[in-house]
Design a protein that fits this description.
The complex is a heterodimer of chains A (499) and B (68). Chain A is α/β, with parallel strands linked by helices. Chain A contains 19 helices and 19 strands. The radius of gyration of chain A is 23 Å and the shape is globular. In chain B, helix 1 packs across helix 2. The chains are: A alpha/beta (499), B mainly alpha (68).
Chain lengths: 499, 68
């Protein structure tokens, strides 16, 4: 089969439900053109719907149990370490294409440090340590990127890096927002200029590019008054997609995908407080001291508010924000704890298992009993104040298959109805309803989070408009791209080509 | 590169490889077998790619993004 050229465009956090109204209003003309001449569908992601798991599953065609990435971190006992590309135990579609002799240009995949040596060009993305790191292949490409002012990503952009949280949380006036949009748009503009330049140098067969700014803005600008920030950035991304469409030589197929969808957060669910109320977790003694410090910080913030700094700003001053979010680790008395959430990016609960955790309290013989108890309680749980269901909880082997499943958290969570899950432990007041659930989040907070259904669009050479499918699975993307290129795909990929 | 390399391996390693190949469809993707075996029998084969300072910096960056 003669292979086609493929341009894959990743849009972090893009959801069909988010972009479709803008497409209908004519605000995203290039996405509309592609969707109107091909296939569009929700893209169902893997559990948990997170950046690292989603992107790696998309590009390997495998579930996390096979590729081994469950989080930004790998957990050993009570320690977490940031993962690297060496922790991915499966091949990306660009690696398979490259090995088959295809020329590839790969730009900004997450979890891509150290970079892949490919038949073409490779520019690493999220989790690259710094600009001093060797993040390109060939290595000489780095100097050219430096001269062009290329940004590895929004987290490393010189204009945002000095205080990233501050950019989002504090600078919410119109002028600052305009500056923020300009920086985000500039990062992607340079990215596309680099791709246009590289595409002139080789007879490429595959281009991969990922835009991450969409996700970062969605987390913080979901409120009605702020929503235009997200929309304006999507309009820029759409314009850049139009530039990539000019690379079409009539034998090119465009595939667009996202790592997960997005939805607004109304309230937070404090999972470790829930476990505490069920006698499964005990905070450490210093917890009360630190909670007192937190209260004191808040009082200082309120005092600042009286001096003219708006309350919302004062409460979210970086030192308060970071203090609040950085404390939880020392909150837990491991000797008196049977289960805990270590970090929210896994959306997982660990059983404090003897032989695995150094201060494990649960015997192997008790493991299933404790785990099933937690799962049952969580699946029956609703917020006493709203009556809404919070999460669905799963045994890890229910959602993963493969030789690396044993490295996953014991219980995986999918949130519902606008709840997010937080590992932070609040001071115990004796009332579950008060301790485990937050008040409604304010526009000044992180007010949206990941959801299961993202965005899939495929259009190009040899394709005609098709009816929308109920959904395409994220692991279908890799075999689809390899098949379009006339290549076979590993039979242990979980996905199948989209027809 | 030779297609096959003949080596003497311990019986438990042989059984582990045989088990994993039989239980999964990894014949199509030998890297899964290799990484699994290395993980089981030589857990130190992967050295950390990040320095302690880089680990700290990336964790801070993720925390600033709101990811704990």
């Amino acid at each position: 089969m003669a292979g086609k050229r493929v341009i894959f465009i990743g849009i972090d956090g893009a959801a069909l439900g988010l972009v479709k109204p803008w497409m209908d209003q004519g605000l995203l003309p290039n996405l509309s053109r592609l969707a109107g001449s091909g296939i569009m569908a929700p893209l169902r992601t893997v559990v948990p719907p997170m950046t690292a798991t989603g992107w790696v599953s998309l590009s390997t065609g495998k579930n996390p149990g096979k590729h081994g990435v469950f989080d930004f971190y790998k957990i050993a006992g009570y320690e977490k370490k940031v993962i690297s590309s060496k922790d991915i135990h499966a091949r990306h579609f660009w690696q398979i294409a490259s090995s088959a002799g295809k020329k590839v240009i790969v730009v900004n995949p997450p979890v891509s440090y150290p970079p892949d040596e490919v038949n073409g060009y490779f520019i690493g993305g999220m989790l690259t340590p710094s600009y001093q790191s060797e993040y390109t292949y060939p290595p000489s490409l780095k100097q050219e990127l430096k001269a062009r002012g290329y940004s590895i990503g929004v987290e490393l952009d010189p204009g945002l890096r000095s205080n990233f949280a501050r950019s989002f949380v504090l600078d919410r006036n119109k002028k600052s927002r305009e500056k923020l949009i300009k920086v985000f748009n500039g990062i992607d503009e340079t990215r596309i200029k680099v791709i246009e330049s590289l595409a002139e140098r080789i007879a490429w067969d595959l281009i991969y590019v990922m835009f991450e700014g969409t996700d970062r803005l969605e987390h913080y600008y979901w409120a009605d008054d702020d929503f235009y920030v997200i929309r304006e950035h999507y309009q820029k991304v759409d314009e850049l997609i139009g530039r990539l469409m000019k690379l079409d030589d009539s034998n090119t197929v465009f595939v667009i995908g996202s790592d997960h969808g997005f939805e607004g957060i109304d309230r937070k669910f404090f999972i470790n407080n829930f476990l505490e109320h069920h006698g499964l977790l005990t905070p450490a003694k210093e917890a009360s001291q630190k909670n007192n410090m937190l209260k004191m910080s808040r009082n200082i913030a309120l005092a600042l508010a009286k001096l003219g700094i708006p309350v919302q700003k004062a409460l979210t001053l970086p030192f308060v924000f970071r203090f609040y979010r950085g404390l939880y680790k020392t909150f837990i008395d491991w000797d008196k704890t049977k289960a805990f959430m270590f970090n929210e990016t896994s959306r997982g609960i660990w059983i404090n298992l003897k032989g695995r955790q150094s201060k494990g309290t649960v015997d192997k013989s008790e493991y299933n009993k404790v785990r099933d108890l937690i799962i049952d309680e969580l699946n029956r749980l609703s917020d006493p104040r709203t009556g809404l269901k919070i999460v669905s909880a799963y045994r890890r082997e229910e959602v993963f298959s493969g030789v690396h499943t044993h490295n996953a958290p014991d219980i995986l969570l999918v949130t519902h109805n606008g709840y997010s899950v937080e590992p932070v432990i609040k001071q115990n007041s004796g009332a579950l309803a008060k301790d485990a659930f937050s008040e409604p989040v304010s526009p000044g907070e992180r007010n949206a989070d990941h959801a299961m259904d993202g965005l899939f669009i495929m259009s190009g050479s040899g394709m005609s408009p098709k009816e929308m499918k109920p959904y395409v699975h994220i692991t279908d993307i890799a075999p689809t791209i390899l098949s379009l290129m006339g290549l076979s795909y590993p039979k242990d990929m979980d996905g199948k080509p989209v027809g | 590169m030779p297609e096959y390399i003949k080596v003497n391996i311990p019986l438990d390693l042989y059984n582990a490889v045989k088990k994993i190949v039989n239980e999964t469809e990894t014949r199509e993707n030998p890297s899964d077998v290799v990484s699994y075996v290395l993980e089981q029998f030589a857990p130190d084969y992967k050295k950390d790619v990040y320095s302690a300072e880089e680990q700290k910096e990336i964790k801070k960056r993720l925390k600033d993004l709101g990811y704990m």
